[in-house]
Amino acid sequence: MAYILLTGASSGIGEVFAHQLAAEGQDLILTARREERLQDLASTLTSQHGVKVEVIAADLAAADGVDQLVRRIESADWPLAGLINNAGFGDRGRFDELPLQRQLAMIQVNISSLVSLTWQLLPRLRGQRDSFVINVASTAAFQGGPKMAVYYASKAFVLSFSEALHEELKHSGVRVSTLCPGPTATEFAQQANVADTKLFSSSAMSAEAVVRQALARRRSAIVIPGLLNRLMVWSGKLSPRWMTRRIAGWLQA
Ligand SMILES: NC(=O)c1ccc[n+]([C@@H]2O[C@H](COP(=O)([O-])OP(=O)(O)OC[C@H]3O[C@@H](n4cnc5c(N)ncnc54)[C@H](OP(=O)(O)O)[C@@H]3O)[C@@H](O)[C@H]2O)c1
Questions:
Q1: Atom in ligand 1 nearest the alpha carbon of residue 191
Q2: Residue 236 — pLDDT band, cuts 50, 70, 90?
Q3: What superfamily in CATH does domain 3-251 come from?
Q4: Which residues are catalytic?
């Protein structure tokens, strides 16, 4: 059976994707930096669901992270039925006060590695009937985000890029979907230093609910899980941009 490659599988939304796909009987290739966590997850999934799970540790912020990953897949000649570009991180703070290296690493993980993996693995995905790509963006993609400028901009890139690919590839047998979660209870909030913001302290969806909706609609161009998140995005579209970016900044204060 063909595999699904899942980035950012060591925690949060990625880990839940792994559980729900394994429950469908799907073989998986898991990647992230924390190899021990991936190995533990692989053992659990194999013993619970009898699926094959391969683990490849890779740092997607490193210049050669994606190439290492692709080389392993190509040398093993694993067929691919799906690619879930989920790895990503954010950081809260003024653009001029956050370290430049961290913000460039964010662009590398959230954007460059996603583009490179998609480009390098598309021929392999085309080799399977009815394959798919899910790129994880965010509701942050829909407006500028003061105090998280690079993160919001990175997710706007992911949404725009993935929407275009959805159209380009829709008759090719590869369906491209963009998942746009709102605040979700994972390690992200601690990592990005946003746990105490109005946005995260008011409401966060469970990663289980987010992934259930993503998989149920894995061939839709855009998936925004949760009614509240959809309402926020829709009301944002009806509002002037100066207003939506100021609200985003206020929610992150
Ligand atoms: N949680 C939210 O509120 C929320 C909302 C909207 C969108 N999202 C998006 O959802 C995706 C998953 O995030 P999450 O909420 O599940 O957060 P999380 O629990 O922090 O998971 C992030 C995953 O990305 C991996 N990752 C981070 N940096 C990496 C690197 N340099 N190389 C390889 N892997 C790396 C991490 O693995 P290692 O640390 O082991 O490398 C981890 O598996 C991200 O793209 C995030 O932007 C999250």
A1: 20
A2: very high
A3: NAD(P)-binding Rossmann-like Domain (3.40.50.720)
A4: 151
